[in-house]
Amino acid sequence: MSMNSYLKMFSPRRLRLTNRLRTMRERIILLEDELSKHTSQHYRVCIFGSARTKPDDDYYRMTYRLAYLLGEKGLDVLTGGGPGLMQAGNSGVQDGRDAAGTQSISYGLSIELGALGKLERPSQHLDIKHHHNRFSSRLDDFMRLSNAVVVTPGGIGTLLELYFAWQLLQVQHLPARPIILLHEDFWRGIIDWMKETQLEQGLVSEEDFRFLHFAKTPEEAMEIVSADFEEFSSKSA
């Protein structure tokens, strides 16, 4: 079979696939526009952190305290919807909301883990929950729905979330927003390494670090969020 005959045989199929991909892309753009109408007027703080941390841990108490302050101020909190520091965030915002009588909402984006699709035990402190089968769509939703990102101590998954958010800001795929590293002592080492090694070798730029904010206490983190919220509110007015 000649090359021309081969191409002619597959041309209709290629055309159908091209048209289908174009239609899917158009639907995605319409969906993005519709979602923006429903999410742009609400300020949400995304909290990333370890699922392994127990309620008697200082990291848990610190994360709960920040979420409580967010709930008191009437701001929403978005987490992965699981145990550990995610639960600290979801329970904290509900308690702060209930104490102050605000309208804060506790969001959770759950995920299946492991080769057998084991579902991470969800928190009982969620007002709205949405389940994801893939990390990629979950990460996209975290970024789509949040206005500020707080990264609490965690492991590989937390690092993935930090760097995913950070790179989207770096390449301007997201509007600027603060990334707050809560518990400065935990995070200082890896950021110092990046500056001493990657920055020194020209692999990152000084400007890339402008999105990062260190916070030693929940109160310091709250000050950063509050300043950004005030700017957000002035633009939305």
Characterise the protein shown here:
With 237 residues, the chain is of the alpha/beta class. It has two domains: 39 residues; 195 residues, Rossmann fold, CATH 3.40.50.450. It has seven helices and eight strands. Strands 1, 2, 3, 4, 5, 6, 7 and 8 form an eight-stranded mixed beta sheet that branches. α2 runs parallel beside α3 and α2 runs parallel beside α7.
Quick structural overview:
This protein is α/β, with parallel strands linked by helices. It has helices at residues 3-39, 58-73, 85-100, 135-145, 156-170, 184-199, 218-236, and strands at 44-48, 76-79, 106-113, 118-119, 128-132, 148-151, 179-182, 212-215.
Total number of strands: 8
Q: Mean of the pLDDT scores?
A: 86
User: DSSP strand (E) fraction?
Assistant: 15-25%
Q: Termini, distance in Å?
A: 66 Å
Task: Tell me the radius of gyration.
Answer: 21 Å
CATH topology of the largest domain: Rossmann fold
CATH architecture of the largest domain: 3-Layer(aba) Sandwich
Kindly name the structural category: alpha/beta
Q: Give unreliable regions as ranges.
A: none
Fraction of residues in H or I helices: 40-55%
The CATH class of the largest domain, by name, is Alpha Beta
Query: Shape from CA axes?
Result: globular
* Element-level helix/strand string: HEHEHEEEHEHEHEH
The total tally of domains equals 2
